Amino acid sequence: MNIKKYRATTIQQALEAIASKEGNEAVILFNRDVYDGGFLGFFTKKQVEVTVLVDDDHEAATVNEKQWNDYKEWLVRLEESGLAQSLCCEIERVLLPYVRGDSSHSIEHLLFQWFLEQLDHQVRSFQAKTRFLFFSGPSGGGKTTCIAKIAAHEVLTKGTNVALITTDTRRAGAIQQLKVYSDALHIPFQVAYSEDFLQKALQRFASYDLVLVDQHSEQAVLFPNETFNMSDDVVVESANILVVPMTSNYKDVKQVLKAYQGRQPLQMVITKVDETVSLGLLLNLMILHKLPVMYMTNGHSIPEDLFVPSHTSIVSLYLQQCKQQPPSMKRNT
Description:
Blueprint: E1 2-8, H1 11-22, E2 27-36, E3 45-54, H2 65-80, H3 85-94, H4 96-99, H5 107-118, E4 130-136, H6 143-158, E5 162-166, H7 172-185, E6 189-191, H8 195-204, E7 210-214, E8 227-231, E9 234-245, H9 250-258, E10 267-271, H10 280-288, E11 293-297, E12 306-307, H11 311-324
Parallel strand pairs: 4-7, 4-9, 5-6, 5-7, 9-10, 10-11
Antiparallel strand pairs: 1-3, 2-3, 8-9, 11-12
Helix pairs in contact: 5-11, 6-7
């Protein structure tokens, strides 16, 4: 058995095409409206897409009603979780063994195993030799607070020699916020009003174990993932860290990624996990953009709400969130 999709201008045309090619044995799983073509979102054409279960030998294709309903509900949950359409389409194929009764595992088990396989890059913290971390992200995404959490975690739990720099001079509150944290942690803090100031600050802190640089949301990435000379005898490795609040829209985050001009940020820090009902955005970024997670935050306490997630914990939380959200069944059945 296989799952196939047919598109046509009307539902009647789609059904006629299915009957012509698959016969009367095809089982219609669901149908939905899709939009093709166009330019920059304009002039798209509306079509009806019908998904059917067919047997390769045109024998009777039957499915258990409960399995069928579970299948449809989970696909709706995944779509409504913000998971990218390309991933949802792949999952339709992955769940086929369950629909046709070839698997003894539950849908949740099949999904859990599939997501773990996709997360083939290891969730890790930054490498020891990566001492200069440049943080960027949307305004209001918790970037400055996140930097404070990382600094506190490194100083209080590891005894790391940390320094802070900010180039975010457009927001007086951001400067004051980091100043308060640096005073509380007894670590140095420098405001860089220009690239020249930044270079001098980096040279000043060249001997520190870790330097965290807070960049304002509209600033271009000054130092992508490469080594650069701090002085004649000091060469260090830098890394870009993209701060992504889970309250963001996937399309907006993709626009942010374009600012890197093909040089993707090395890792992500995920914020506002406690303010979202789904980690669909996170899985899109990890699977489709190959971005590993450095840290996640799920509150405002410093540094208690900062943690390093595992693949297992990410997938488990995501599927749990999907189960807790009843599907709206927007797909037509």
